Amino acid sequence: MNRHSGFRGFLEAWRCTRRLLFGSTAVVAMVVGTAGVGAVTASADTVIGTVPVGDAPEGVALSPDGARAYVADSKSNRVSVIDTVSNIVIATVPVGTTPQGLAVTPDGSRVYVANAYSGLLGEVSVIDTADNTVVATIPAGIIPEGVAATPDGNFVYVTNNFSNDVYVIGTADNIVATTLSVGGRPQGVVVTPNGKFAYVTNSKDNTVSVIDTGTNDVVGTVQVGASPHDVAVTQDGSRAYVTNSKDNTVSVIDTGTNDVVGTVQVGASPHDVAVTQDGSRAYVTNSKDNTVSVIDTGTNDVVGTVQVGASPHDVAVTQDGSRAYVTNSENNTVSVIEITATPDVETTTRVSRPTTTVKGVAVDLTAMVSGNPSGGTVQFFDGVILIGDPVRVTDGRATLSHAFTEAGDHPITAVYSGTEGFLGSTSQVVTAVVTDDGGGAGSAGGVFGS
Predict the structure, then answer these.
(1) N- or C-end of the chain: fewer Cβ atoms within 10 A?
(2) pLDDT over 70 for what percent of the chain?
(3) Same domain, yes or no, for 198 and 142?
(4) What's the pTM value of the predicted model, to 2 decimals?
(5) Looking at residue 40, what is its pLDDT?
(6) In a domain, 383, yes or no
(7) Angle CA(182)–CA(188)–CA(190) in degrees, nearest 5?
């Protein structure tokens, strides 16, 4: 990410002060702009590779380090293992009948695969990723489909589509620990990044069940669009994105309230959804028009459409956000999409300070950074002299209490360091007038910035 270092910020503040001292009437900030994202680039996402796999690939999951992609070949009854550096299949693992969804444990040591028509009702195969062999087979409910692992790796949640329930499997012994009823024809499942909740799509009821993973009770039901299929949650856990396959939309759920706060029109028959690690983009497979819709999660607008193979089914995004892997069930391939990096947000920094204060009396200096980032620091300057230590920015604000030790005019600047997704910026110089005695009360005064 592009950001300013503290040293560059210091130099810029020094240059600003020099211009002030030499009679310049204005100070140019390092970065001048308004809050918001620069030119949209998601539409530049392109397919850079196509990987032949087995028959009718459906589920796809990536190892935590992004080195491997695991693909459920539903009609070949196997899992293809793709080396993501070369994008070549380096192994195939026989599993049960009609593998569907799969999930990799957080430590990358196991892959859990839902086999819809194996055994008496259905089964889950457990693959050891060290040697790509099946080390356990677990009886499941009727037609298991979706699989999700908890962040601590202790449990795996499996949706059973025809028995309308979810199995909770303990990964230590590979035994079903709990079974809980959900809505009609459950399909997709995801566990929130903090591990506290699981969200399950119920395609027959047009609902999403919310499970408290501490008690494994259903604690909420959210009405969404027609025939919800899959669900993904942003890394900060604040939003869940649900594909509604029969009305060509994605429902956006506020996970704090479990209310639908947005509906996004996408392509025909959306199936799966994956969100980038930074939460800026959601990728949706549209199975009937052979595309992937790219949603800007800041605005919930579709900002790009990528043409892929025939009948795209599932999608997974690498943790570094550089690639998306899409299974194309009708032409037995996986499309590899190169994701164009989201531009950093330009910021502006403004300083609020008392217009007049008294020597030796503490006052607040406040910097306000556009875009409301939470991260990075602000360093305040009195001319070229640092005022205190850098102050962490939270919700776009950083405040420092400071008592001036000399009377006179003090040129104050604030230098924002930048953080993940946000560029640094420097405020205009503002003047704080400090008197020897009661010339001011030390209350908040003007706000200036650039």
Answers:
(1) N
(2) 87
(3) yes
(4) 0.73
(5) 34
(6) yes
(7) 90
With the CA atoms of 133, 135, 140 and 145 taken in that order, what torsion angle do they form, in degrees rounded to the nearest 10? -30
Return phi, psi of residue 253, to 5°.
-105, 130
DSSP 29: -
Tell me the average pLDDT across 73-77.
98
Distance from C-alpha of 287 to C-alpha of 311, rounded to nearest angstrom: 4
Q: Could you say which of 292, 317, 338 is where a domain stops?
A: 338
The DSSP code for 165 is E
Compute the average pLDDT of residues 41-49. Answer: 74
Considering the chain, what percentage of its residues have pLDDT values greater than 90?
Answer: 80
Phi, psi of 311 (to 5 degrees): 55, 65
Cα separation, 60 vs 103, whole angstroms:
8
Residues facing 189 on adjacent strands: 200
* Separation CA 123–CA 142 (nearest Å): 9
Rg (CA), the chain: 27
**What span, in angstroms and rounded, lies between the C-alpha atoms of 80 and 336?**
15
Give domain status of residue 212, yes or no. yes
Are the C-beta atoms of 328 and 345 separated by less than 8 Å?
no
Separation in Å, CA 29 to CA 11, 17, 231, 420: 12, 12, 43, 20
| Confidence category of residue 438, pLDDT binned at 50, 70, 90 | low
Residue 355 is predicted with a pLDDT of 81
Does residue 1 belong to any structural domain of this protein? no
Give Cβ neighbours of residue 36 (< 8 Å, ≥ 6 apart). 345, 346, 371
The token duo for 322 is 């550089």
- Specify which residues 27 forms β-bridges with: none
Its sign, for the CA torsion 193, 48, 102, 174, is negative
Say whether both 415 and 332 belong to one domain: no
**For strand 356-358 and strand 430-435, is the pairing parallel, antiparallel, or unpaired?**
parallel
Count the domains in the chain. Answer: 2
Under DSSP, is residue 6 helix (H, G, I), strand (E, B) or coil?
helix
CA torsion, ordered 257, 259, 262, 266, to nearest 10 deg? 120
| Domain containing residue 240: CATH number | 2.130.10.10
Sheet holding 88-94, edge to edge: 57-62, 68-73, 78-83, 88-94
Instruction: In whole angstroms, give the CA distance from residue 13 to residue 218.
Output: 55
The pLDDT mean for the chain works out to 88
Burial call 261-277: b when 16+ CB within 10 Å, e when fewer? ebebebbebbbbbbbbe
Domain that holds residue 403: 6-37+344-449
17 neighbors 429 (Cβ within 8 angstroms): yes
Q: Which residues pair with 81 in a beta bridge?
A: 70, 91
